[in-house]
């Protein structure tokens, strides 16, 4: 969007095609690790808003359908 007051995505983002299971898993791991790397939690599944808990056998805030 060219409307700067309502821009949601960064202009310098680099979208990639999720063309394989390995790439999808790599990107999910990256997302799950962000709160840990930022120092908000010690383990990915401790972050309340992460789906990491679902992948570690727990139950998160929303129900997920695994692919």
Automatic annotation (TrEMBL):
GO process terms (BP): DNA transposition
InterPro entries: Transposase_17_sf
Gene Ontology molecular functions: DNA binding; transposase activity
Protein name per the record: Transposase
Gene source species: Pedobacter terrae
């Amino acid at each position: 969007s060219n409307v700067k007051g309502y821009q949601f995505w960064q202009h310098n983002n680099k979208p990639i095609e999720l063309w394989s299971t390995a790439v999808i898993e790599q990107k999910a791991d990256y997302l799950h690790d962000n709160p840990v790397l930022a120092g908000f939690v010690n383990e990915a599944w401790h972050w309340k808003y992460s789906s990491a808990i679902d992948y570690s056998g727990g139950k998160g805030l929303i129900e997920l359908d695994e692919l």
